[in-house]
Amino acid sequence: MIYEFILPFGGNIHVIQYVNKEGEKRYVMIDSGPGIYYLEILGMLMEKGIDPTAIDMILLTHSDADHAGSAAYFAKDFDIKIKAHSDFWDRIKNRIPDTVVSPVSQPYTEFCKAIIGFETPKRDEIEHFSAEEIIKIGALNLAVLNSSGGHTSDSVYFYDEAHKILFTGDAFTDLNAMDDSSKELLRAMITLGNPQVNANLIALRE
Question: In terms of C-beta density within 10 A (0-12 exposed, 13-18 middle, 19 or more buried), how is residue 187 classed?
């Protein structure tokens, strides 16, 4: 079973449920959501019967605050392993610029970190994905695909070929699935010249 949680300020969390060899329900999270909503995220998980102590690991698609901001809280409170791209730490420490740079890129990123909340994981809390890694989660075999830039310099995708399931973080957006308030937010981001907004969102100008 896969749960999806849509959060304010954008970002989403997917939780994959599986049963281990001992017959116990276990979970893997894909992205953690923003730090400012950490307690609300815990409440959402528990409302669906997801025990945070049964989460084995958090897989991060990229280091933006709305996707990775709560990861350190989960690691601290529940001793959950965090896995991310090898550039994750350097990007959140601003040592690696985004793949597309504009005059507003860095100020925008720092503004989002401050407003949305980003608790930076410790370096030793992050385990890096290996080359051509396959992560087995119950019946799923998630291939870790390096985006070679894409949305951010540390973006990865997770793909299960047998079930045709692809987790992309912010790399692709289904406009038809978005509510009006989300579309308005994206229009504002495009107007500000945010380079991280995907090219396919330019249609929102119309």
Answer: middle
